[in-house]
Every structure is written in structure tokens, then in C-alpha cells.
Fold this protein.
Amino acid sequence: MDADALAASFNLIKNVVMPTAVYVVTNNGTLASKIVDGTTQTVIISTSAKAPWVSDIASNRVLVRKNGYSLPEINMNAYVESMISSVCIEGLIGAGDRAICVAENGKIGTIMIFDGKNMPAVKLRDEINNGVKMNLVDSVLKIAFEIAREGREGMHTGALFVVGDSKDVLEHSHQLIMNPFEGHSKSARDIVDDSNKATMKDLAQLDGAMIVDGSGMVLAAGRHLDTVNGIDIPMGLGARNLAAASITKITKSVAVMISSTGIVRVYHEGRMVFEAKAI
């Protein structure tokens, strides 16, 4: 893969597209530097490289995100679309942005153009119309992506959040363990409060689901969810996905789940409405 050629193509395209943000997926320091030097816009770089350029290139305008993934040669564009969705969830690329993504895996490269308002992470707001506050779902999604990206002790781990319609959700579930949130103040159970984020991330990774009411208060963790028949989930997905789909089918809730492979999915009305790989 020729870094000079890919950077030259980017420079031609950016003069036509006039992007407001640039997203780069590469382990190639030469390519990353050429892209950064070729634009005045915010640049988000996703890399698994451990070379010195990774820290040298970071600045107020350049955000470097380290990941442990390598882009596949097959379906690379679909993989990149999934990765950029996680960037949208974190608010780094919004509905008003037009972004250029430059991605390469050492063998092949691609340049993609994204219109923020058409991104799945942005369109998710149109899907969720059952009364659950979208800003609350956004807060849970941000925690979910951090769990998917960071894992526990360097290993990916799964988790499940159920947001909204908490009365019915509790009626269709039971505790697997003692509820770690019982007896704690509202301020300590507020999932939107950043000062509680570390606790939320740790307790969400217990077996079972974390239940969040419509105001953002966590009511319980370690909760086993009832499942129902007639749920249609993609082949190969396991019990956590079935539980997420089931609870949103029988209640007016939204479920956000994290797989042990670093994928975040959102379920609503018994079906998956969003899927993205964390970066």
C-alpha cells in the first residue's frame, strides 16, 4: 500500500468535499502525518501501532485512539463504517459534519465519505420512539463503548444495560446476586454523572443486566432477564442478545449490550437497531 498515493488521493478529494472532520485508520506513521499535514480540520486517528509517531502526532487538533484491531481485507468498508459509528456516538462526529475516512491495512487502502446525518448512530434517534430519553441512551452508549474498548484487565468482556420502563423490566427479571446498588443514594446511582462512570463500568460487567430507570438512576445490577419465544436475532448471536431482544419486546425499554468481541448493539421493540465495533 502506497502511503504517498493514498495521501495524494485524499488531498484531491478533500478539496471537493470540504470535510469538517477527518478519520484515519492506519498503523502507518507516514500516512498519518501526511493526512494531518494536508488538512486544518480535526483528525481522529485509530491505530494499533506502538511506534513513537503515535504520541508525537497527537495534539489539540489530532486525537489518537489506540485499538487492538487490524482491518480485514474482506468487507473492510463495512468494518470501517462500524468503527466510525462509535466515533459518532462519542460526539466526535455529529449530524452536521461531513467526514472523510482514510483507511488502510498495509495491503489495501480505501477512502470513504460520510455525511453525519446519514450515519447509523445518528439515525438511531429516529428508531427509538417509545418514550426513552435519547440523551440517556447516549450516556449509556458512551459507557458501553468504553467497556467494549477497554475491557477488563486487557480482555474484552460482555455487559448489558436495560434503560427505561423499569417497573415492567423488574417484573420480568430477578436478581442473580445481591443488588450492589441497594441502599445507595440517588447521586451515587446516577448513570449520567461522570463521577460515577468508573463504578458503573465495573458493576455493569457482573453477570446479568444493569437496570436503569427513565431518569438515569440505576436500580439494580446482576439481574437475570426473562426471555420469550418468537424473537428473531441474527444467527450466531448468544444468550445476552436474546435477553436484550426479549426484554425490549415485552417492555417499553431500550437495551444496550456489549459482546465479548468488542461489539456494541442496541435493541428496541425486540429487534436490533444498531451495531458497531468499538475502536
Notes: The first strand starts at residue 21 and ends at 25. The CA atoms of residues 45 and 64 lie 5 Å apart. The chain has two domains: 3-116, 128-277.
